[in-house]
């Protein structure tokens, strides 16, 4: 009997300890994932989606679509299990419309998070957009805006993804989140660099404007930048400083630069890893005031940025062994997840 009482008292003490720790240290996860061509199976005459219909070259059908959704559920829930909490804000790219977003939010293992959706249909020629999911119990949504990309020198008929801004509060602190999918390197990295540099400069202007309106606002821009953290578009045009200790008031910082320098990446091409998927934060997140939310890394972690690398996300054999296991290679269905890996950061008070 005494032994049972002792065990019960230990369990109660542990529960109280964990409860107090949770109350003293609130942790929020902010995540980005390029989900790679999440199309429904219905042809939309206003966009070029004929690849992703049952009669198209990829023979995209309901069975393949639901396999893709199952895969996304596995990714998001595995991150949730690993971090013991559903992400607060999730940014995604390469989604066709609100219908596919609603299908993600209603997946059985994600329903408990009660994810709300922030999305606008954009002008991209293929019809792929960016979007947010957010937990209304943690992020208090106040508003959003779809911002047209304005890139000097781009041809008049150039159509790319809009920028999506969303603002509100976390634990009473003002946040402005932006998700973006920068122009690709099609035609060559050097030849297309001006497109990404122009968009990066536009985002920098938005960040500066947001902070001028309220210097306390914490700015987070995430997305598939199609450039690495050290490239000119990110380090100069966006102004994402590479070293945390050199930040000044109003600066932006990339938690992923050192990771890429050390050889880590989120997608691979010709056996070389790139880190195109990035989350950039304002200086008041990198170096928060006492008692305010700021970026955090676990004690044993080397970096502030995180890449989710679940074993199931990788090709296990063949020519692309070790690469992210994607949905298609060419027109051959692989049943995989994405050609990108998810990235996330922690915010802690």
- For the CA atoms, what is the radius of gyration? 21 Å
Q: In total, how many domains does the architecture comprise?
A: 1
Strands, count = 18
Can you tell me the CATH superfamily? Answer: Endonuclease/exonuclease/phosphatase
Which CATH class? Answer: Alpha Beta
SSE arrangement, N to C: HEHEHEEEEEHEHEEHEEEHEEEEE
Question: What descriptors fit this protein?
Answer:
single chain; about 350 residues; alpha+beta; Deoxyribonuclease I, Chain A; seven-stranded mixed β-sheet; 7 helices; 18 strands; about 25% helix; about 25% strand; disordered N terminus
Topology of this structure?
Elements: H1 2-24, E1 27-38, H2 62-83, E2 89-95, H3 98-105, E3 116-119, E4 129-134, E5 139-147, E6 163-170, E7 173-181, H4 189-213, E8 218-224, H5 232-237, E9 240-241, E10 252-253, H6 257-261, E11 267-269, E12 272-274, E13 277-282, H7 283-286, E14 294-296, E15 306-307, E16 328-329, E17 332-333, E18 343-348
Parallel strand pairs: 1-2, 7-8, 9-10
Antiparallel strand pairs: 1-18, 2-4, 3-4, 5-6, 6-7, 8-13, 10-13, 11-12, 14-18, 15-18, 16-17
Could you describe the 3D structure shown?
With 349 residues, the protein is α+β, with helices and mostly antiparallel strands. The chain has a single domain, classed as 4-Layer Sandwich (Deoxyribonuclease I, Chain A). The chain is 27% helix and 27% strand. Strands 1, 2, 3, 4, 14, 15 and 18 form a seven-stranded mixed sheet that branches. Helix 4 (189-213) links the parallel strand 7 (173-181) and strand 8 (218-224). It is globular.
């Amino acid at each position: 009997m005494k032994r049972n009482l002792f065990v019960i008292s230990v369990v109660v003490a542990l529960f109280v300890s964990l409860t107090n720790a949770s109350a003293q240290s609130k942790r929020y996860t902010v995540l980005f994932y390029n989900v790679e061509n999440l199309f429904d199976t219905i042809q939309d005459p206003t966009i070029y989606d004929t690849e992703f219909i049952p009669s198209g070259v990829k023979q995209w059908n309901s069975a393949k679509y639901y396999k893709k959704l199952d895969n996304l559920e596995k990714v998001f829930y595995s991150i949730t299990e690993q971090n013991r909490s559903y992400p607060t804000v999730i940014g995604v790219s390469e989604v066709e419309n609100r219908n596919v977003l609603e299908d993600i939010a209603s997946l059985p293992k994600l329903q408990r998070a009660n994810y709300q959706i922030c999305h606008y249909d954009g002008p991209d020629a293929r019809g792929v957009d960016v979007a947010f999911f957010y937990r209304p119990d943690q992020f208090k949504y106040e508003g959003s805006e779809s911002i047209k990309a304005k890139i000097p020198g781009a041809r008049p008929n150039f159509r790319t993804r809009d920028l999506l801004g969303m603002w509100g509060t976390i634990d009473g602190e003002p946040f402005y989140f932006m998700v973006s999918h920068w122009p690709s390197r099609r035609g060559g990295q050097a030849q297309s660099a001006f497109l990404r540099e122009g968009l990066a400069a536009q985002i920098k202007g938005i960040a500066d404007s947001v902070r001028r309106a309220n210097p306390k606002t914490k700015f987070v821009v995430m997305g598939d930048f199609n450039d690495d953290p050290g490239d000119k578009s990110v380090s100069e045009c966006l102004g994402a400083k590479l070293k945390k200790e050199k930040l000044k008031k109003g600066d932006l910082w990339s938690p992923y630069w050192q990771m890429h320098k050390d050889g880590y990446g989120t997608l691979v091409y010709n056996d070389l890893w790139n880190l195109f998927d990035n989350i950039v934060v304002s200086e008041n997140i990198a170096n928060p005031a006492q008692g305010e939310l700021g970026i955090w890394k676990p004690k044993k972690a080397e970096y502030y940025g995180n890449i989710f690398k679940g074993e199931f996300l990788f090709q296990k054999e063949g020519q692309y062994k070790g690469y992210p296991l994607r949905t298609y290679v060419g027109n051959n269905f692989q049943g995989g997840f994405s050609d990108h890996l998810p990235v996330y950061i922690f915010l802690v008070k």
